[in-house]
């Protein structure tokens, strides 16, 4: 029977000097489902994943697999399969040789190399040098490496990037199959549209902080409103003090909350309103409202 291993982020924080890349991030990724880790470029996703995998040291907090840090795992490749960068392969090696090197180092049976090459659809190109691979083929090779140790957990950063429509459909089915086998699957993306047909639960980050955690159905039904006041700065201060996500537009402030709650906050703060209008938005609109305008730079 497959071991069921959670991914656990607890108060994870990373500062690069004065830049707060990740701020107090806490959530758990459960086995048996595909969880999306979403946010625009520069939101803190890749930095969080690199801390999870021991590539970056946190300023504070922890990121573990079943309570164990990556560096302390007894059999890392059998516990966690990772694919963070599709281009991080020696271009002069063949895909088969690339995987064989890691299999030998980890004590994995050589036949597993052929199995993952078949599983990811690149067996026919396995003896070509990786330098001649397209981005989509490198993505498949990255996934083959992630699956090499038949891991309990998969951590994939932008796995759909570079795939054609057929490849996107294939990877969606594969990830759902792997989750159905009891594995823990965490997939990061900066586009909700790329993963919404794959994931069951999402964690959305913006500017290094979690702005939503839950199901896609709940996200789509999340209440939002547009509100404004003669003193917009005072209104924004009051709303943010109430821990609400606020996005400024030309028409007013878009707030992820029910209009009645927004009105009550403004009243308590003594801020008269000039506009308060409940909105019904689609899933992508709600996502964009949560993460705000602009994408920043970095990961």
How would you describe the overall organization of this protein?
The protein is an alpha/beta fold. The protein has eleven helices and 13 strands. Helix 9 (232-241) packs across helix 10 (259-269).
TL;DR?
The protein is of the alpha/beta class.
Which helices and strands, and how do they pair?
Blueprint: E1 7-16, E2 19-29, E3 33-38, H1 45-52, E4 60-65, H2 76-79, E5 80-83, H3 95-106, H4 111-119, H5 135-147, E6 153-157, H6 165-180, E7 184-189, H7 192-195, E8 201-206, E9 209-215, H8 216-220, E10 224-228, H9 232-241, E11 246-249, E12 252-255, H10 259-269, E13 275-279, H11 283-291
Parallel strand pairs: 3-7, 3-8, 5-6, 6-7
Antiparallel strand pairs: 1-2, 1-4, 8-9, 10-12, 10-13, 11-12
CATH fold name of the largest domain, please?
Answer: Rossmann fold
**Head-to-tail CA distance between termini:** 36 Å
- What's the alpha carbon Rg, rounded to whole Å? 21 Å
CATH class of the largest domain: Alpha Beta
CATH architecture of the largest domain: 3-Layer(aba) Sandwich
Number of beta strands = 13
Order of SSEs: EEEHEHEHHHEHEHEEHEHEEHEH
| Count of separate structural domains | 2
Mean pLDDT: 90
Oligomer: single chain
Annotation keywords:
34% helix, 11 helices, six-stranded mixed beta sheet, elongated, alpha/beta, single chain, four-stranded antiparallel beta sheet, Rossmann fold, 299 residues
């Amino acid at each position: 029977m497959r071991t069921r291993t959670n991914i656990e982020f607890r108060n994870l924080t990373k500062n690069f000097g004065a830049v707060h890349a990740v701020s107090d991030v806490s959530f758990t990724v459960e086995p048996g489902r595909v969880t999306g880790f979403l946010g625009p470029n520069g939101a803190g996703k890749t930095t969080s994943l690199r801390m999870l995998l021991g590539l970056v040291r946190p300023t504070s907090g922890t990121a573990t697999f079943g309570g164990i840090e990556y560096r302390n795992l007894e059999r890392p490749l059998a516990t966690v399969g990772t694919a963070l960068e599709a281009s991080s392969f020696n271009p002069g090696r063949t895909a088969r040789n690339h995987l064989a090197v890691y299999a030998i180092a980890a004590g994995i049976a050589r036949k597993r190399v052929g199995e993952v090459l078949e599983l990811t659809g690149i067996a026919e190109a396995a003896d070509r040098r990786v330098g001649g691979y397209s981005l989509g083929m490198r993505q498949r090779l990255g996934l083959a490496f992630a699956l090499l140790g038949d891991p309990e957990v998969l951590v994939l950063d932008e796995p759909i990037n570079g795939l054609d429509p057929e490849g996107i459909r294939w990877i969606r089915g594969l990830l759902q199959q792997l989750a159905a086998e009891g594995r823990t699957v965490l997939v990061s993306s900066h586009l909700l549209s790329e993963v919404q047909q794959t994931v069951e639960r999402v964690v959305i980050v913006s500017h290094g902080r979690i702005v939503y955690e839950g199901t896609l159905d709940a996200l789509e039904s999340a209440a939002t409103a547009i509100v404004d006041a003669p003193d917009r700065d005072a209104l924004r201060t009051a709303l943010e003090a109430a821990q609400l996500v606020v996005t400024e537009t030309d028409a007013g402030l878009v707030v992820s909350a029910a209009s009645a709650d927004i009105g009550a906050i403004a009243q308590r703060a003594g801020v008269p309103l000039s506009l308060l209008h409940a909105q019904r938005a689609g899933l992508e609109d709600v996502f964009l409202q949560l993460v705000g305008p602009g994408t920043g730079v970095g990961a």
